[in-house]
Amino acid sequence: MHQPTLLKQGDMDLHVLRGGPAEVGRAQGALDPDFARGALKELLAIRHNFEHPYFRKNMAFMRREFPDFMEQMEAFGAEVGIENFDHTYYLHVYNTGRAQDGCSAFGILLKDDGPALLRTYDPVRAGSRDRLLKEFYLGGFPDLKPHGFVGIGWKRGISTHTALNDAGLMVGWASGLPKFHWPDNPEYLNLYFVFHLLPRHCADCEDVRHFARQYRISGVKGLTGTAVDARGNMVGMELESENIAFREPEDGLLLETNHWQHPDLQALARAGDPNFWRSPDYYNSQNRVQYFACHREAFKKMRTLKEFTDFLFDVYAPGRILQMEGHNIANWSTSHAIFMTNRDRKMRVHAYPLEKGRYTEVVWPG
């Protein structure tokens, strides 16, 4: 039977969750029900408004467009012991707002090893980093349709992100800031659901473009990301809400960070929130773009994933994509660095504190 196989054990366990949406949802709920209930309790203590128009209309939209996803979510809530589905849905769509974490999604076409993708998670506070280390798990979902995948999941919900699917599509995300179109848009896909549903429904970069145009996003902030397919096509996604843009690779390279790089979106964002463009968060994001540009010629010549990994771990320079506390603007640190290649269908996860030789690696059957 096709399922991801653990090649090397590091700091993360691999959970292979088989079956249809309901079976997978129950299995996800059983991973750490205490953590999920605790997360919900924290959210309900902050605020909640289940009669907000976005909440009701977005739930109805999801039931109409993605009933299998909602079946999975309902099974998760029941397994965790959440009696009211309003609470389960709230747990999935609520976040703390425009938190400026410093993630990167770096696509590269390696000369020997083919298409590859690096995704980093870079929380702004040590407490956030420690929570991610407890909350994230490596999950394989071989039976979900149309596409099974392996990816990084949240123990407090069913969304899975940073995915490598059975068609060889690799997807990684970063926060797009600032959002500048504020209507709720409840009939767009909530950004926390895009993580899971795009690799589940797309086989290649053309599918990704179509999916993003059709469903766009809604929620508290924008979203940037990079997709790389099995043929070596790449696309950068900059999804704000009403406004979307796609960026193309140059020399087999593409980096998405935490600010709008496409000129159409950047002009609107600078006018909509000028303070962001003078903040440490922007300078951190732009610094990574400058690092990428500075080392472009080295990246263009890289042949193997090992060479790519060695460079990113060993070359200390301003804007370094694997971020370290005390060595960058805004003082972010990388909690997880995920390297993927689709020629051999491998996903390698390095967890904080990052060490080049310590990682968990899985392979998806190709």
CATH architecture of the largest domain: 4-Layer Sandwich
- Stated plainly, the CATH topology of the largest domain is called Penicillin V Acylase, Chain A
CA-CA gap between termini: 12 Å
Shape descriptor: globular
In spatial order, strands of the major sheet run 2-5-6-7-8-9-10-11
Give the count of structural domains: 2
Your description of this structure?
- The protein is globular.
- It contains twelve helices and 15 strands.
- Helix 1 packs parallel to helix 4 (67-80), helix 3 (53-65) packs across helix 4 (67-80) and helix 4 (67-80) packs across helix 5.
- The chain has helices spanning 21-31, 33-46, 53-65, 67-80, 85-93, 126-135, 191-201, 205-215, 263-272, 280-294, 296-300, 305-314; strands spanning 5-8, 14-16, 104-110, 114-121, 136-141, 149-154, 160-165, 170-176, 222-228, 234-239, 244-247, 253-256, 336-341, 346-351, 360-363.
- The protein folds into two domains: 19-93, no CATH class; 104-363, Penicillin V Acylase, Chain A, CATH 3.60.60.10.
- The strands form two sheets. The protein has an eight-stranded mixed β-sheet with strand order 2-5-6-7-8-9-10-11. Strands 1-15-14-13-4-3-12 form a seven-stranded antiparallel β-sheet.
- The protein has 366 residues and is of the alpha+beta class.
- The model has no long low-confidence stretch (mean pLDDT 93).
